[in-house]
Amino acid sequence: AAEIAMYRAKQDGRNSLRFFSPDMQEHTQRSLDLAVSLKGAQNRGELFLVYQPQRRLSDSQTIGAEVLLRWRHPKWGDVSPAEFIPIAEQTGLIVDIGLWVLEQAARQLHQWDLLGLPKIFIAVNVSTIQFARPGFVEELMKVMSRVGVPTNRIEIEITEAVALKNAEQAGTIIQRLHAAGFAVALDDFGTGYSSLSYLKRYAIDRLKIDQSFVKDLVTNQNDQAIVNAIIHMAHSLQMTTIAEGVETEEQANRLKELGCDEIQGYWFSRPLVSQDFAVHLRG
Ligand code: C2E
Ligand code: MG
Ligand code: MG
Ligand code: MG
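# magnesium ion complex -> structure
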């Protein structure tokens, strides 16, 4: 008999039941344990945020930060987002957690403003499940007005998968995000089923060039050609470009030569806890 794991997933404000067959979904005992534990993680204070600086290449200024979720479990230690974000999505927990991330990030911006630090923006990752929910944009706006930070200080990062899975509504939702004042970035660009037609259709502000193209950029002619093409295409469509996963000065220099606008990566900073980010911003 197939072993069936059952969770209660809170979705659309009501409780719904979800069934997972371990062999179908390759759910291990660990992912079941994680799913159960993640539910209480937020209340127990195990979730926290880190901020990774984004640097403009023309003047080396930090102009923004990507906020990244962290989970430190008392017994298991740090659980990677690559492992727990999919679980948060499958259980529906990502909806509440996602709003919490935005609210914390907005409060953090407010605090840095009060300290007189340079006015940056924060990029927030959004999952398909959040994006496709009715009232998604309104919920984000509610959080922003509650905190009292203008929406133009927040960039919403979606992946190509998010855009494609909701192909019909995606354009409308992106339009609504813009009308509300948010910026929109396309994350991990080049790794999905890149359909160039939606770049024209959707009003995207920024392309995030995936780190897989940056890794061997200095030595690999094909990667240089691809990155060059992405940057030119983006610019001719009035979008800016940021390269992810920049780990060396050589990569940064090459990206600057290719006309890339901004970079993010371990070369100049890992994701930082808020206190360290404030120190970074002070310069
Ligand atoms: P992502 O949005 O593409 O985030 C970039 C990832 O690259 C982060 O991994 C970051 O720590 C890592 N990174 C940054 N610079 C470098 C570098 O120079 N070299 C290398 N090798 N890696 C670098 P992280 O924090 O483990 O997050 C993984 C993914 O989890 C994110 O990918 C994003 O898809 C998801 N995620 C993280 N936080 C959230 C969140 O709050 N909400 C949602 N929905 N997803 C999140
Ligand atoms: Mg991202
Ligand atoms: Mg990315
Ligand atoms: Mg990624």
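# post-check
The pocket of C2E (ligand 1) is lined by residues 52, 68-69, 80-82, 85, 94, 98, 101, 125-127, 187-188, 211, 244-247, 264-266, 271 (CB under 6 Å).
The longest helix spans residues 94-114.
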